Structure formats: structure tokens, C-alpha cells
Amino acid sequence: MKLEEQGQVERLVSMLVETPGCDEAIVALNTMLLDRPDLQRYYARLLSMHVLLEGELTDASTSFAPLVSRSGKSVSAWPRGRQVPSAADPRWATTGFVALAVSLLLVALFIASGDGQYDNTASSASSPSISHHYEIENALFWTEDHQAATLVSRLTRTSTPSKLLLPSMINADRDFPQLIGGTAWMEYAPGLRERGRLVVQPPNTVMDVFIDTDASSQNTLSIVELNAYGVPVGDSYSVGNTIGDQLPSNIRTGWTGEFSQSNPTSSNRYFLFTGAYLDRRFQDSQRWAPSDFRTYVERKELMILGWDDRTYTTAKLDGTGLENSEEWQDCDYNDIRAIIRFASVDGTRLDESQATVNYFPEVDKTEYLKPARELGTGYTLSLQPGEEAYLMVTGYAALQNDIRIVDVANQRIVWHHGGVQRGVQWTDQYPSDRGAYVIRNTSNRVRQYELQSSCLTDRYRQLWRSNLHRLLTKDMGVEIVGFEDSPESTVNADWQDVLVAIYRFDMPR
Q1: Where does 399-498 have alpha helices with state H?
Q2: Is the dihedral angle over the CA atoms 29, 30, 31, 34 positive or is it negative?
Q3: Is the Cα torsion angle 273, 279, 282, 284 positive or negative in sign?
Q4: SS3 sequence of 288-331
Q5: What is the mean pLDDT of each run of 10 residues along the chain (509 residues)?
Q6: pTM of the full structure
Q7: Of 295, 392, 276, 390, nearest to 336 (Cα)?
């Protein structure tokens, strides 16, 4: 790569930032980058610089343009009923980034052109001389290189951790620990750690990430690619749930971002997911804090992660005093949520199940033996052949409300959540987070399920009354169903006593 070529790429990127919709610059860049992996990597570094500068020089309301690579991606990867957004979709437009959002389509050239090789190492890491340390008791390693910690801090607008500890295993054939998927830790002081999630993309796969939000506070999700030595490399991405200037009225809900990467190589790729939220106690000073997360589904073809607007340090206090606080009531882990789907680069399925229907988590055998209550009282969910649905359940009620997912064909309960923590019988505090459930219809017929909810009206006599339901939203492959235990009330009838968000996708072929 010649200095003259670098300068030309820089000039074209500047034209795209300063002159939205400059077709001439887009065509020229496309021509330059074709079959030039060295220029493609330089172009990516320029984009990363622009993203970081935008985050440093603008207010916290900025939603960065996504780095979306659609190479090797099948149409079935997108939510059913949803059109694939163009990179110029105004949802992504931010000041100074309209043209950049268009040009980001060129990132697909990383994978689709040239020699097909992906540079998964930092310049100093091919024969790593970076000093590293290993925490044997927790199988974590960290290095003296602080690039990743600094990048995470900038993208999330949180304090810079002194250590970024990554999940790993010791391999006798390697001098360096081997990264594995799992919980990563950001250490800010001895004994003070917050959590992120390291996701591994296997060789010869496409990874599609769909991000949605349902929060009254400001939240972000950031994704940083790391190489095998924990050094940032490749793409980084950040998206939030605000539009414009951070006023509460401008907080959005629903789909808020996508991130897609192809890995046609024989090596793993690593992505660090971190959430952050604007701490309500410090809104005047714009203090952001790392969000805690939960893993709901973890399979080789699917992961579902959810973040809550509180720190891990706060979350781990559950059971020692937080149960009686308002903060504990909102532990719903849906403020930012990531659905991560994996398929082979040719679009075929990774799972090899031959069953006609798959349930994750596994069916509750004790409940499945029980016949369901009378059908017809709940919401009917029909799944077409080759369709799968992800059901995210939350609840916000002063009374105990349960949720049942019933297989209509045999009137058996597939899953049941009683509205209290498992093993708890007497409580006045009911968890908001009721779990995530996956139904995959691999049969050649339509399968029907009924979502039922009821309210405990008399705990001494164990009397339950069926709740009414209402379809609150149906759009872009998502249905939101609300249940109400007091529909006659003019004050408390909010149809959120139990909420079920249903995400529909077509299965890989």
C-alpha cells in the first residue's frame, strides 16, 4: 500500500462525510478497495477513527452508524415480515454521518473480495510480545495492552477499567491462553468488577446480531472485535435507544440496531459485548455506568442476551436487601437485548436436530404431564413450517401473575412460570424477568400455541382467575401481547402485568 493510495482513500472518506450522497466518491472507493485487502483494512481503521471522534466530540445522544456486512447473509436471517433496511435508512442518520452510513456497505468487501483472508491479528501479536497475566481460579487472562479497555470506555462512555479480564483456557500447545466464550470482567479497582460478554464466532459462519430495546432510561450496547490476544481489531459498533437530544420523550423502543459479520476463515473471531446506561442518580453530570447482563439461550446456532440498567455490583446484592426496593422490581434485563444467530457461510443450519419441533430451554417435564386449563382464554400463536419464535416474558404487577405456554395440539403445558422465584411460596415481591423461550417448527405443518396468564386472587385458598389479554403491537416480525389482572380498574389497567414479546424468524434452510 502506497502513501499516495492512503491519501486518496482519506480524501474520498472525507468527501463522503462532508458531502452526503456523493455517488462519485462511493464509486471511486468501491473501485479502489476491490481486491485490495490492505486498503480495505486501512479504510476500516479510518471508519473506526471517525466513530470514536464522533463519540468524543458530540453529546451522549449520538447513535453511531452500524458497521453492517451482509456478505454471505441469507434473507432468512432477518425477522419475518421485516424488510432489510438500507444503510441509508434515516433511522441511522446522525449529524455528519448520513453519507458515512451509506459508505459502510463497503465493509462487505472485507469478506467478499480479495484473497478471502481475514487479518485476525494485531501488528504486534503475530508473535505476541505483550505481557500477559493469568488468574487461574477464574480462568481469566489480561494483558498490559490497554487498547481494548480504552475503546470499550469510549464507546460506552464509562470509566476506563484498569484491567480487561477475558475468559480463557490454558492450552499446552500455546504460549498464550486461548480465548473462549463467556463472561469478561472489567476491573475498575481491586474487588470492583463489572461484566461484559465475550462471544465467539466459529470458522465458516455468518453471525447476525439483532438489537432491541424496551427501557425508560438511556441505554447503549457496544460491540468490539478482539483478536486472539485481546487486542482490538476489525470492526466496532455502538447503538443506543435515544433519538436526538436525550429527552425522555425521545427514547425509542423496538428494533434499534443490527450487526452482521462473516467468518470464512479457519479461525475463531471474538466479539466483546458491553452494555451501559445513564445513571438516573447522576443525570445532571451525564454519568454512564456498565450494565449487568443475563444469558437466556446459549447454543451453537443461537444466543439471547439481555442487559438491565444497573451494574453487576448492584445486581449481586439481590437476596441481601434489594428485594424490598423499587430498583429490584425493575430487574427485567430487557433494557437492551441482543439476539445472536449463527449459520454456516452457505446459509445452512448449524443444529442437526431431526425433531419436528424444538424447545429451548427444555420442556418442563413436571408441567408437561399436566393438562392445560381450558383453551380459548389466551393469545394464539401460530408458527408456520420453517419458522421459529423467541418469546421474552416480563411482568410488572402488584399481584402474583403466572404465564403458561400451551401446545394446542395436545393441550399440554410446554413452559410455566408461576410469577415467583422457583421454590418461593409467600412473597409480595414478584420478579419482572420471567425468562426467554424458543420454539422452532421444523415440521411440515402449522403448529399452534396458546399463551395464557392468570392472577392469584386468594393465596390462602389458591384461587386463580384468568387474565384478559390484548395485542399491543404487531409490526416488523414482532408481536407484543399484554395481560391485565384488573381490566375494570381505571387507574391500574396498563396491560403490563405480564408482557410477552414474540420475535419471529425464518429458520436457515
Answers
A1: none
A2: positive
A3: positive
A4: EEECEEEEEEECCCEEEEEEECCCHHHHCCCCCCCCCCHHHHCC
A5: 70 74 79 77 60 42 34 48 40 31 32 32 44 83 87 90 92 79 94 94 95 88 93 86 60 81 94 90 75 95 94 66 46 92 90 87 77 86 96 91 93 90 67 93 96 91 92 88 90 89 90
A6: 0.75
A7: 276
